[in-house]
Design brief:
Length: 117
């Protein structure tokens, strides 16, 4: 996977002022928030609460965009559009699976590239 497609590192450096430690803290907070949001989305899916699903996807989209993580923002945006149209929950499952897969991938990417030994 192309690293530039995963994360806009220039954007990350811009918002961190080039402070490596701040980047690590920012990314850690982002990952923790994403885990919570994933859990909340799953709970909302279980009761077909489209408003809550959309709200959390919008948060994921914005947070991902803010740190330059367009790999996640892209799929969250697609999902948000489908949820806004209130497509059936079953039609969302493949995109939800893709979102979770991308979260796992980006978590590995951050762990590999933003952890000092």
């Amino acid at each position: 996977m192309n690293m530039k497609r995963l994360v806009n590192l220039d954007r990350l450096a811009e918002i961190s002022g080039g402070d490596w430690q701040f980047e690590q803290e920012l990314l850690q907070a982002y990952l923790e928030d994403m885990k919570v949001l994933q859990e909340q989305i799953q709970k909302a899916i279980a009761v077909e609460d489209f408003a809550t699903i959309r709200y959390h996807l919008h948060t994921i989209k914005g947070s991902s965009s803010n740190i330059g993580c367009f790999f996640i923002e892209e799929i969250a945006s697609q999902l948000e559009k489908k949820v806004t149209q209130q497509e059936s929950i079953s039609s969302l499952n493949s995109l939800i699976d893709e979102l979770e897969s991308r979260f796992a991938y980006i978590e590995d990417f951050f762990a590999t590239n933003f952890t000092k030994s």
